[in-house]
Amino acid sequence: MTAEPFYDWMRRHARAMGWDLGEEAKKTLHVWAAMAATNGLDDAQVAQLARGLGVTPDEVTAAYQLEMRESAMDELLERPDLSALDTDLDRIAGEERPR
Fold first, then answer.
1. Largest Cα–Cα distance in the chain?
2. Which of 4, 14, 25, 94 is the most buried (most CB within 10 A)?
């Protein structure tokens, strides 16, 4: 199964709901996609999108979480200092002794 970018997912569902996807609507969907990829969405935002797109809140969450995780992983890999911190946190979570 290939992951569909959240923006494309929202656009597909918006079209199915009969939205007019002019430039302003596309910009709005891009903002939602950026918010989801960087900070995630809170319950109220998920509920609002679900109502507008005619889907369940769980579907919205599933649609953006993979992209959000990939974005976080890309940031982690681009920042070696965060990568070292992640390694230390994994070690602490695994209860290994410090080196």
1. 59
2. 14
